[in-house]
Amino acid sequence: MYRDGARKSIWQNEIKRLSTENDLTEWFDTAIVGGGITGVSTALKLQESGQKCIIIEAANIGFGTTGGTTAHLNDFFDTTFAQVIKDFGLENAKLYAESGKDAIQLIENNIRRYGISCDFVRKSAYLFALDENQEKQLKDIVTGAAEVGHEMLYVNEISFPIPFREAVLIPAQGHFHPIKYIKALCEAFIQLGGAIEEKCICEGYKEHDDYIVLTTSKGEIKAKNVVYATHIPPGINLLHFTNAPYRSYAMAFSLKDNDYPRELGYDLCEPYHYYRVQEFEGENLLIAGGEDHKTGHSDDTGECFSRLENYVRKHFDVETTYFSWSSQYYEPIDGLPYIGKLPGTKDRIYVATGFRGNGMIFGTLSSQILHDLIITGESKYEHLFSPSRIKPIAGFTDFIKENASVAFDYIKDKIFVERIDSLSEIKPGEAKVFRYESETYALYKELNGTFHLLRSTCPHASCEVRWNSAELSWDCPCHGSRFNVNGKMLTGPSTKPLDKIFPFQKK
Ligand SMILES: Cc1cc2nc3c(=O)[nH]c(=O)nc-3n(C[C@H](O)[C@H](O)[C@H](O)COP(=O)(O)OP(=O)(O)OC[C@H]3O[C@@H](n4cnc5c(N)ncnc54)[C@H](O)[C@@H]3O)c2cc1C
After folding, report:
1. 163-197 burial string, b = 16+ CB within 10 Å, else e?
2. Are residues 191 and 237 in the same domain?
3. 347 and 493 co-located in one domain
4. Ligand 1 pocket, residue 387 CB under 6 Å
5. CA-178 nearest atom, ligand 1
6. For residue 324, is it within any domain?
7. Which one, of 391, 387, 503, 404, lies nearest residue 454 by Cα?
8. Nearest-atom index, ligand 1, CA of 62
9. Is residue 321 part of a domain?
10. Torsion, Cα of 148, 153, 154, 156 (10° steps)
């Protein structure tokens, strides 16, 4: 299975091709664009209800962030209950708490119904404070959780070799193998008559009164409804201004003496570190994650791995580093995901995005919400997670700040591109964005001396891409589109490649 980066994640051995033989001129009830956990779960749910569905995937099933996740199943979220009570009120915060429990239940139901073997385990989690400031945050988190009826218990010990000041135990969390899980969902979907079209990029849509025509790299596809399960929708939409792309790092280590923590673990650093265990080829490995930053905002993404590794080695008795990979998620402006009708469209196009680091949960929850909206026209979550919601006044400053930062990137990128006077300035393995005669270019030199020259302007909204040395990709800081060294699109919202000038070999 391929992923949208040069590094291999711990999950990648599981899938090859899952495409079915399809007649794309047929009519579909719902076309689901995107083959990650959101698209696959939604497609299966709709197919189970008797719909005829197709999953359209630009690359292969699991290619996006689902192939680069860490797959904790936690129903306390990056946006705390306390924050949601403050911004959206207690009743909405209670509904938000219910959504996590509903999502884990949906996963368990699928596992039971289809007999899925995906290393799913229920276990407790520890949330721990490392300093005085984190202690205050923890207190706030626990108070908010109590108000919405979510159990968190203060404890004196944790199963992590990390000095802490205070900690809580949170029962009934879990983790699983995300690719084994979605592979089994795809097989169930195909068994029920569902269609999967991989290597098919959805480029846009035309709305008609009672159907949608999708324009794709394999021609037009007609469906009564469309779900954009692409992590961020393609095209230009309001949601590109209410979601910011972030990069996050994960590594898997073997530990000496088989001394693995029994539970899930999370500190409250900014950004936080988090831990779980996964069996790989009969051995346990510790997966640690963290070092998040806004996409395109790190000069050396390789350094992020070094910092994460050093931090883990400081606390755990590491034997070997087996995997290191990074992936992208989206931060919504007001902290809650956007699940429902795509803003600015009529009634038949749906979207699910803005999951922060909780997309196993919200991607799964999206399958229920979007199913209910399409089949019955309503969902208990439709107002809370509405993509068209107006942010409560309390968080308005953050909204402006986040948008201003994206807008600033846009302008700044137009000004600050490097000059290079000759190609010999570029060392093997190095990359640069530079200006030449009023055009800007992205140049990468492979270790064997081959140059790859692209135009550096992102086709989505004309920002300038930045080099991601860890994943060998060009990443757009504005809305998160990503491209490989040949300009091929890896991650939307762009649906087009970067303009390729040439690859050439220089002696
Ligand atoms: C490092 C990291 C760790 C994480 N850990 C956790 C965790 O422990 N627990 C948790 O709950 N969440 C976690 N998350 C978040 C979670 O992994 C994501 O929110 C989730 O995987 C998103 O799934 P998705 O299906 O919506 O998107 P994706 O998995 O990104 O799938 C979208 C798919 O759409 C396809 N696509 C895009 N554009 C087009 C197009 N135009 N045409 C056709 N196809 C297209 C892509 O190729 C891709 O396969 C983590 C995220 C990161 C980055």
Report:
1. ebebbbbbeebbbbbbbbbbbbbbebbbebebbbb
2. yes
3. no
4. no
5. 21
6. no
7. 503
8. 49
9. no
10. -160
Of residues 68, 75, 5, the one with CA closest to residue 37 = 68
* Cα–ligand 1 centroid distance for 389 (angstroms): 23
Whether 292 is covered by a domain: the verdict is no
Per-residue pLDDT of the chain (507 residues), as tens digits, is: 899 999 999 999 877 789 999 999 999 999 999 999 999 999 999 999 999 999 999 999 999 999 999 999 999 999 999 999 999 999 999 999 999 999 999 999 999 999 999 999 999 999 999 999 999 999 999 999 999 999 999 999 999 999 999 999 999 999 999 999 999 999 999 999 999 999 999 999 999 999 999 999 999 999 999 999 999 999 999 999 899 999 999 999 999 989 999 999 999 999 999 999 999 999 999 999 999 999 999 889 999 999 999 999 999 999 999 999 999 999 999 999 999 999 999 989 999 999 999 999 999 999 999 999 999 999 999 999 999 997 654 554 555 455 545 545 544 554 456 666 677 778 999 999 988 888 899 999 999 999 999 999 999 999 999 999 999 999 999 999 999 999 999 999 999 999 999 776 554
Query: How far does residue 107's CA lie from ligand 1's centre (Å)?
Result: 16
Burial of 268 (0-12, 13-18, 19+ CB in 10 A): buried
State whether 233 and 367 are in the same domain: yes
- Domain match, 420 and 489 both: yes
Beta carbon of 357 within 6 Å of any ligand 1 atom? yes
Is the beta carbon of 355 within 6 A of some atom in ligand 1? yes
Count of domains observed in the chain? 2
421 and 385 in a common domain: no
Which residues have CB under 8 Å from 363's CB, separation 6+?
36, 37, 38, 41, 66, 229, 352, 355
Shortest-distance Cα residue to atom 41 of ligand 1:
202
Nearest alpha carbon, ligand 1 atom 26: 231
In a domain, 308, yes or no: no
Pocket test for ligand 1, best of 12, 182, 231, 301 (most atoms within 8 A of CB): 231
Range of the domain at 475: 415-505
265 lines ligand 1 (CB under 6 A): no
Ligand 1 mutation pick, 227, 329, 331, max ligand atoms within 8 A of CB: 329
CA 359 to ligand 1: nearest atom: 19
Regarding whether 231 and 187 lie in a shared domain, the answer is: yes
CATH code for the domain in which residue 219 is found: 3.50.50.60
Nearest to 426 by CA among 334, 340, 506: 506
Q: Are residues 383 and 424 in the same domain?
A: no
Does the C-beta of 228 come closer than 6 Å to ligand 1?
no
User: Is ligand 1 within 6 A of the CB of residue 71?
Assistant: yes
Handedness of CA 451, 63, 379, 193 (dihedral sign): positive
Give 118 Cα–ligand 1 centroid separation in angstroms. 18
Domain CATH code at residue 496? 2.102.10.10
Ligand 1 in reach of 63 Cβ (< 6 A):
yes
Q: How far is the CA of 67 from the centre of ligand 1 (A)?
A: 7
pLDDT per residue as tens digits for the range 362-399: 999 999 999 999 999 999 999 999 999 976 545 545 55
> Does 419 lie in the same domain as 501?
yes
